[in-house]
Write a structure and sequence with these properties.
mainly alpha, globular, 7 helices
């Protein structure tokens, strides 16, 4: 695989390049579900991910991610199987209902 042949510095350069690209607009988040997600996002997510989902400090950018990825990732954080229990996102995701996660995914993707 190509990832085995590139150096650590090349991987960092690729990550920096892709994180510098502006998010692509999406039509995924134009519903009432998205509006609900905006309320949740402003309450739960902006402290670490920024007001526009641009990412702050060591926390990743969420803006422009596809809904399917956000939904899957939040459900993974929510699991109580122990793999992510010490991650701050586990505690945040654990409070969210499945409907809340769908709403956040719609808003972030929009």
């Amino acid at each position: 695989s190509i990832t085995k042949r590139i150096t650590y510095d090349q991987k960092v350069a690729i990550a920096i390049y892709f994180s510098s690209l502006p998010p692509r607009p999406s039509a995924e988040g134009t519903t009432a579900l998205s509006r609900k997600g905006e309320v949740i996002f402003k309450k739960e997510c902006t402290h670490c991910h920024g007001a526009n989902g641009q990412g702050l400090y060591q926390y990743p950018r969420l803006a422009g991610q596809i809904a399917r990825y956000i939904d899957f990732t939040l459900h993974e954080f929510k699991k109580s199987d122990g793999r992510r229990k010490k991650n701050i996102m586990h505690y945040i995701a654990a409070k969210l209902s499945n409907d809340d996660i769908s709403a956040l995914a719609a808003y972030i993707a929009g």
